[in-house]
Design a protein that fits this description.
The protein has 2 helices and 2 strands; from the N terminus they run αββα. It is mainly alpha-helical. It has one domain. A hairpin with a 2-residue loop joins β1 and β2.
Length: 96
């Protein structure tokens, strides 16, 4: 009878360890998926913000770590050059 109790206790411990291992794997997958979703939402928000800022010929600044770039709509540059009398191909003519 005593051996049966020890066997049941050992099997119970093994079952709890197995369930903990499985649950940990599931939680890690959920955390990874949430991180990927948050990253995608952050990228989308950054692109939308840059688009909105450059829509009225404003310069948008993009910073990643210690790197910084300024972005401007090419159509605004074309209009500025044309206003200064510099001949410029239109964006529709470039593909021909």
């Amino acid at each position: 009878m005593e051996k049966l109790k020890v066997l049941i206790a050992a099997l119970s411990v093994l079952l709890m360890l197995a369930l903990g291992y499985i649950a940990n794997g599931k939680l890690e997958a959920i955390r990874t998926d949430a991180g990927k979703e948050g990253y995608g939402q952050g990228i989308t928000a950054a692109v939308v913000a840059a688009y909105q800022q450059t829509e009225n010929c404003q310069v948008a600044t993009i910073t990643m770590g210690n790197l910084t770039k300024q972005v401007v709509d090419v159509e605004c540059v074309r209009m500025l050059l044309e206003n200064k009398g510099v001949p410029v191909e239109s964006s529709n003519e470039q593909g021909k």
